[in-house]
């Protein structure tokens, strides 16, 4: 029976995701709060019918995001509160982005990508994912906000998990709005930073740097990491960048870092590192390790990249003129690891 339950739960997974999307679009969680509220009152506030609203709230309760205290009276759980955009740890943009039809449509062609190795997104939309974002500013802004929310836990864990004190300047390659770099600079007052990304990627960076009080120690540089990266740093940091790209593209990015790496400099890659064999503890309901394998398939269908094993990282680093020196799990930001490389 447990095996059948597993299959049924997985088959309903996309419905659970769309339930989250509906809750975010209707702004349910910012209205529910921690004090029980009647469903009819919430329905009136969002312009919904009372009975369907009750059904949505009960589905959210079944998913662990609300509590029904008395019939038709609900409050948010701590997990549900993460769908409130007013929560500093909010994941609303992340949910909106990863339930966005633009993302989901390519998944309908996963079998085609498995057969051919081709990127389903490109076939569906007639262009690649990042070009599509550039053509749709609102979607691009949502993507950048989602990435900022996704990096928050790593930004809190990374500064104390690596010896940044031995460096003078760190360049965050593909660092988006600077959430990760700002966390590092705030924790290490003697360190200077360079935030390197596209013009679109950097659009919110000044606000991030000001908010963390590090704007005076950080330069913002727009560019294309397939062409070059800024010289002058002794540490080059990349988080969740390489998994977006093919091995050949990854080698190009790493070679550009290698070209400007000074003696004693380091490249620090922050990404999941897949085991050689799937850990049986990787939960089938996509918690813990299981989500990394779904991320791997998302790279396949939407952008053409992939998650990698230690041997995979060793190989791309070697091709770029780098030697991988260590892989350290980032325990407080699982499933990420710190992958350090030096010049050959």
Automatic annotation (TrEMBL):
One of its GO terms (molecular function) is O-methyltransferase activity. It comes from the Bacteria. PROSITE patterns: SAM_OMT_II. Pfam families: Dimerisation, Methyltransf_2. This is Methyltransferase. GO terms for biological process: methylation. Residues 107-322 form the O-methyltransferase C-terminal domain. Keywords: Methyltransferase, S-adenosyl-L-methionine, Transferase. InterPro entries: COMT-like, COMT_C, COMT_dimerisation, SAM-dependent_MTases_sf, WH-like_DNA-bd_sf, WH_DNA-bd_sf. SUPFAM superfamilies: S-adenosyl-L-methionine-dependent methyltransferases (SSF53335), Winged helix' DNA-binding domain (SSF46785). The active site is at 243 (proton acceptor). Coiled coil: none annotated. Residues 9-83 form the O-methyltransferase dimerisation domain.
């Amino acid at each position: 029976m447990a095996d059948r339950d597993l299959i049924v739960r997985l088959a309903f997974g996309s419905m659970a995701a769309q339930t989250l999307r509906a809750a975010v679009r209707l702004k349910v969680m910012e209205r529910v709060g921690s004090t029980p509220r009647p469903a009819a009152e919430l329905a009136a506030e969002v312009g919904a019918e009372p009975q369907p609203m009750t059904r949505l709230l009960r589905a959210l309760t079944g998913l662990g995001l609300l509590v029904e205290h008395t019939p038709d009276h609900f409050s948010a759980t701590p997990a549900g509160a993460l769908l409130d955009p007013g929560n500093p740890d909010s994941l609303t943009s992340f949910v909106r982005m990863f339930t966005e039809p633009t993302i989901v449509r390519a998944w309908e062609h996963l079998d085609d990508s498995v057969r051919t190795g081709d990127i389903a997104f490109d076939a569906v939309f007639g262009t690649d994912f990042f070009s599509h974002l550039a053509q749709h500013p609102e979607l691009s802004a949502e993507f950048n906000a989602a990435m900022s929310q996704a990096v928050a836990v790593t930004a809190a864990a990374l500064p104390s998990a690596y010896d940044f004190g031995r460096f003078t300047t760190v360049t965050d390659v593909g660092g988006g709005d600077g959430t990760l770099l700002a966390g590092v600079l705030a924790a290490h007052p003697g360190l200077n930073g360079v935030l390197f990304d596209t013009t679109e990627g950097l659009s919110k960076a000044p606000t991030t740097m000001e908010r963390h009080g590090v704007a005076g120690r950080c330069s913002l540089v727009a560019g294309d990491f397939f062409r070059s990266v800024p010289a002058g740093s002794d540490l080059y940091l990349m988080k969740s960048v390489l998994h977006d790209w093919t091995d050949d593209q990854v080698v190009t990015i790493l070679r550009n870092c290698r070209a400007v790496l000074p003696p004693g400099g380091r490249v620090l890659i922050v990404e999941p590192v897949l085991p050689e064999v799937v850990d049986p503890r990787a939960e089938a309901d996509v918690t813990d390790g299981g989500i990394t394998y779904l991320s791997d398939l998302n790279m396949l269908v939407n952008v053409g990249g992939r998650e990698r094993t230690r041997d995979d990282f060793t190989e791309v680093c070697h091709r770029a003129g780098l030697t991988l020196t260590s892989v350290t799990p980032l325990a407080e930001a699982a499933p990420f690891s710190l992958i350090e490389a030096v010049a050959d």
